């Protein structure tokens, strides 16, 4: 579901049978562009929509993205224990927070499904490290990957950590959650009465139209609504 920032009106909604939101950011942006006839200036979404290749593609088109990064349990554990890897461009190596080096090995790793390429960097002296068991499950050494678009990825992470990035991620909670909460309350204990993707999409469309109409009654004057609906009424009368 796509909601505008100013009035919290639903601009686009699509029913999917995916197990999560990953990979759906670009399709939802395209549905919105088709509905409005123009591209959004900014896109805010939760971590479920986080997919770096789609974010980079949208930003290259001039759409500023603020989508939280979905970190796995291993990454969270690393943050908790202060495990950090910094890239030394001059020497083409990574250095960990324990002062050890990771050198490039194995060549490029390509993920056809995600369309990514990354160079593997492997630790050269991990065995004596006091926190090795916290850092890696490997018996030999820790590996990290540097993507071909790593510079863009680093800039994106820095943007999210900025004051502006934090405020945008906080703002997102006040947008799409607004209509979702209202509609779920309307639906009651039986959320969907129909079955099948097409029928469910129709049912959600009806809820979205009802929500938008009630929302317009709150944000627009009677005179503005009269101007909006008068051409439709005249056309139907003819």
Give an overview in words.
The chain is α+β, with helices and mostly antiparallel strands and 238 residues long. The protein has two domains: 2-70 and 176-237, no CATH class; 83-148, no CATH class. Helices cover 44% and strands 19% of the residues. A five-stranded antiparallel sheet has the order 5-6-7-8-9. A two-stranded antiparallel sheet has the order 1-2. Strand 5 (85-88) and strand 6 (93-96) form a beta hairpin. The radius of gyration is 24 Å and the shape is elongated. The model has no long low-confidence stretch (mean pLDDT 87).
Report on the biggest sheet.
5 strands, antiparallel
Radius of gyration: 24 Å
Helical region count? Answer: 9
Number of strands: 9
Q: Globular, elongated, flat, extended or rod-shaped: what is the shape? A: elongated
**Mean pLDDT reading:** 87
As laid out across the biggest beta sheet, the strand order is: 5-6-7-8-9
Helices and strands in order:
Elements: E1 2-3, E2 10-12, H1 25-36, E3 42-45, H2 52-60, E4 64-67, H3 73-80, E5 85-88, E6 93-96, E7 101-111, E8 116-123, H4 132-135, E9 143-147, H5 150-161, H6 163-172, H7 177-187, H8 197-219, H9 222-237
Parallel strand pairs: 3-4
Antiparallel strand pairs: 1-2, 5-6, 6-7, 7-8, 8-9
Identify the notable features of this structure and list them briefly.
two-stranded antiparallel ribbon; five-stranded antiparallel β-sheet; alpha+beta; 238 residues; 2 domains
């Amino acid at each position: 579901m796509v909601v505008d920032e100013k009035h919290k009106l639903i601009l686009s909604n699509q029913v999917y049978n995916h197990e999560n939101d990953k990979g759906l950011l670009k399709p939802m942006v395209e549905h919105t562009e088709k509905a409005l006839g123009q591209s959004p200036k900014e896109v805010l979404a939760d971590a479920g929509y986080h997919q770096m290749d789609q974010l980079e593609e949208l930003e290259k088109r001039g759409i500023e993205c603020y989508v939280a990064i979905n970190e796995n349990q291993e990454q969270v554990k690393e943050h908790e224990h202060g495990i950090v890897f910094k890239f030394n461009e001059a020497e083409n190596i990574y250095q960990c927070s324990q002062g050890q080096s990771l050198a490039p090995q194995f060549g490029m790793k390509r993920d056809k499904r995600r369309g990514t390429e990354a160079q593997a960097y492997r630790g050269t002296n991990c065995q004596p490290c006091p926190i090795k068991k916290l850092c890696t499950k490997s018996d030999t050494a820790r590996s990290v990957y540097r993507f071909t678009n790593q510079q863009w990825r680093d800039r994106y992470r820095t943007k999210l950590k900025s004051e502006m990035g934090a405020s945008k991620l906080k703002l997102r909670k006040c947008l799409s959650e607004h209509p979702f909460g209202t509609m779920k309350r309307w639906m009651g204990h039986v959320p969907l009465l129909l079955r099948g993707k097409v029928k469910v999409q129709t049912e959600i469309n009806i809820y979205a139209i009802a929500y938008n109409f009630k929302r317009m009654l709150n944000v627009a004057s009677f005179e503005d609504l009269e101007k909006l609906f008068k051409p439709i009424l005249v056309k139907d009368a003819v």
